[in-house]
Amino acid sequence: MTLMGNPLVAVVGSTNLDLVFVSPNLPRPGETVMGGSFNTHPGGKGANQAATIAKIGGNVSFIGCIGKDAYGASLRQSLESVGVQTQFLREDESLPSGTAAILVGEHGSNMIVVAAGSNKSVAADHVRSAIANARPEVVLAQLEIPVEAVMAASEAPFFVLNPAPACDLSDELLSKCNTITPNETETEFLTGVAPVDEDSCRTASCILLEKGIRNIVITLGERGSYWATPKTGKHFAPPSVKAVDTTGAGDAFSGALAWFLAEGREFGNAVPLANCVAALSTTKHGAQSSMPDLVSVKELAGSLY
Ligand code: ADP
């Protein structure tokens, strides 16, 4: 295995501020509930994946859009504070920063409203010129920004798509993916096959391989992940950890996989390493705040690293 000198991943995606209210009771329509607590957390699949890469020591640039407001300034600051490069994080005058209002009730039940805001302003031209400038080894995108922006990202020579949240995708876009990383729900949405065991993982993967995608990496929650190419298929069990909160596990996985591939690692090494990063993220609460650092990844991965 030859690891590359100073590779770069460009993450093209969303950034949101999560406004989280925790209350014993969730309100019904028309009702006001007193007695809650409040906190804000940076979120958005794109920002979560970029933050993962920076926290495991990777070189990463985020391509996206914030509003010209206090939330936008705080989102930029939180990316920069973990070491994500933000020179291609554009400020949009016309829309507020993306936000999610999250109400958490007893036993973790929740109600969520997402206002995409400036994430809707991520434009194809901006993505193209940022990628031409940055010249990343790997480009990683998700589906919380306009499809035109994702199409522009897919023009990169090595494009990884995390197809989340699930939505219909054109054959043209799928054919440009080197790698796709659906979870169980997204796999069933895209292929009609629930990946419940190795046979069904292979069947689902074949449907996606027929679209021209080179590598299918299905994430299977506590069962780990499954990697398929036209020639092979292999299941990788994750390390056993004490999971307390799986929020952001998929983001940890996709971010880490993109970075390990940019470093020049083979899939047979990058996929189980991504399992380690994602497993560690489940041992802490939150999304970006739960992403592990390189020291803990090396410790858990041992000789894999
Ligand atoms: P998503 O968050 O998109 O639904 P998954 O639930 O498939 O994604 O989780 C992504 C990855 O996180 C898995 O492939 C696995 O590596 C890791 N993971 C998730 N849950 C656990 C767990 N309980 N124990 C160990 N690893 C886990």
Task: Give me a quick take on this structure.
The chain is an alpha/beta fold and 305 residues long.
Any descriptors?
305 residues, single chain, alpha/beta, binds adenosine-5'-diphosphate, 4-stranded mixed beta sheet, 9-stranded mixed beta sheet
Write structural notes for this entry:
- There is one protein chain.
- By secondary structure, the protein is of the alpha/beta class.
- Helices cover 34% and strands 21% of the residues.
- The protein has 10 helices and 13 strands.
- It has helices spanning 45-55, 70-82, 124-134, 147-153, 171-175, 184-191, 198-209, 249-262, 267-281, 294-301, and strands spanning 9-12, 16-22, 37-43, 60-67, 89-92, 98-104, 110-115, 138-141, 159-161, 179-180, 215-219, 225-228, 233-236.
- The strands form 2 sheets. The protein has a 9-stranded mixed β-sheet with strand order 5-4-1-8-9-10-11-12-13, with helices on both faces. Strands 3-2-6-7 form a 4-stranded mixed β-sheet.
- The chain is globular.
- It binds adenosine-5'-diphosphate.
- Residues 183, 219-222, 224-225, 238, 241, 243, 246, 249-250, 253, 275, 278-279, 282 line the site of adenosine-5'-diphosphate (ADP).
